[in-house]
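Notebook, student rotation project (T.W.).
Task set for the rotation: take a protein with a known small-molecule partner, predict the structure of the complex, and write up what can be learned from the model alone. Partner molecule chosen: S-adenosylmethionine. Sequence and SMILES entered below by T.W., checked by me.
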Amino acid sequence: MTQDRHDPNRFARRLFSPLPDRYERLAELLSLGQNSRWRRAMVDHIVPAAPASVLDVACGPAGVALQLADRTGAGVVGLDLTFEMLEQGTRAVAAQGRADRVRLVNGRAEQLPFADAAFDALTFTYLLRYVDDPEATLREVARVVAPGGPVASMEFLVPPSRFWRCWWWGFTRLLLPVGGWVTGGRQWWTVGRFLGPNISSHYRRYPVEWTVGAWERAGLVDVGVRRMSLGGGLVMWGRRAGG
Ligand SMILES: C[S@@+](CC[C@H](N)C(=O)[O-])C[C@H]1O[C@@H](n2cnc3c(N)ncnc32)[C@H](O)[C@@H]1O
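Predicted structure of the complex:
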């Protein structure tokens, strides 16, 4: 499967639609337990604001949305492109008895079906590598946050140190595809093979410093970054200007 730069949504839908069943378990296993650490660190930036409403963009099977509901008193909306992810998310929300507080909707981050400043806070996870224009998507994401509201995200990253980058390269190019195949079969092999080169090429095009600037150009202020897990993960935060 190759990434069609002219139709990135189609690519993401095809990549993610076969994955939801075991997504949470395999994402955890194949990230060597780091996914949940990054997720918690991201949500830590939302909790102190005690928002009444939060939008989680690219929610997948609702793991982040559920954590937001658990750790804040907010009503949470999770939005994702892929129906199959949302179906799995709906099951997860029901299983945790959170249907009263978590609502899932189908949509695109590039064109959110919400009014300006509709949410008190917003998170997005593993999103910008799948959109054609990360800067425009950041503007769209910032648009729906109320002035002063916190925004936080998480992503994979390429370790800055040459030493750890060599290990990371071996892990993403060899262990991830093979581990994906062993634990999840052909579809996870495809994801495992895709991820390493995709992360590398994303940061060649959009380094972290560029991404910080893009957050600021989108109207977000007090932007911070935390490199986690030897630089393999990136948590970012900021807040919508004003308020
Ligand atoms: C790696 S999964 C992460 C799911 C979830 N955020 C988590 O951390 O468990 C990436 C998700 O992004 C969604 N996605 C990709 N491009 C998107 C877009 N343009 N708009 C909305 N969702 C998108 C995919 O459907 C997929 O569910």
